[in-house]
Amino acid sequence: MSEPVPDRPEHDTEPKRRRTGETRLGLVRRARRIMRALADAYPDAHCELNFETPLQLTVATILSAQCTDKRVNEVTPGLFARYPTAADYAGADRTELEELIRPTGFYRNKANSLLGLGAALVERHDGEVPATLPELVKLPGIGRKTANVILGNAFDVPGLTVDTHFGRLVRRWGWTTEEDPVKVESAVGELIPRSEWTMLSHRVIFHGRRVCHSRKPACGACLLAKDCPSYGTGPTDPGTAAELVSGSEADRLLELAGVTTGSTTDPATDERAGEPAARESAG
12 an active-site residue? Predict the structure, then answer.
C-alpha cells in the first residue's frame, strides 16, 4: 500500500527555488524518487563507526563530534578494551581517559561527557543504554542527532540523523530551507516514510561524502541531477565532475549517472529527447 502524502505544514518553509511549477505533491514525489535512487546507489550504506554494543556506539558517536569516523575507529579498539562497561567509564582516571581519546580532538570536553555518561547510566539505567529518545537526550554528551544514531543503529528504531552532510544535501535538493537540525528533521520526516528514515540518513551521508561535496559537488556525474534544483553548483562537465567522485563505489556511481571516462553527456539532460530533463515535478 502506498504511503499517504503529507499535508503542507501551516508555516510555509518551502524553498523558493522549488515553488515555481512544483506543488506539495510534486515535492513529495521528487523527494521519494531521490530516496529510491539513493537506495539503488548505496544498497550497503551503513553507520561507518565500528561498534558491537549500544554502549560502544554511544561512546563512538560522542567521540565523532568534529572528528572523522576513520580517526574514531582507530581510537576505539583500545578504548573499548580498557572500558568495557558504563561503570568503567564512571570510575575512569581522567588523565588516562583523556590520553586515550586525545587523537579525536576536544578530548577534555569529550572526557567530561564520557565520565558523566558512565555515571548517569549506572545511576539511572543499571549501566545500560536506554532505547528511547527522551531518555537518551538527558544523558551527558548526547543530543538529538547522537540519540537518533544510537536508536537507528543499535535498537532499529527509525530516526533521521541530521549531521552537516544531511542538512546540506536536503537543502540543496529543495526539501527544506531550514537550518536548525530539529526543524530539518521535522521537514524531511513529513516527506519520507518513517520506515526509511535510518537508511535514508546513511545514504544521504554517503552521497555527501562521495559525490555532493560541500565546496565542489560533482554535479556533472551525479545520478540525482535530473531531480536536483541545485544542479550547476559544481562542475557540470561529466569528465571534470567524474574526477570529484570518491569512494570504493565510484565506478558504479558513475555508471548509474550515465557517465563514462571521456563522456560529454550531461546527466541532467534527457538523452532520448535531447531536451533538458524536468528537475521539478508538478505532481
Answer: no
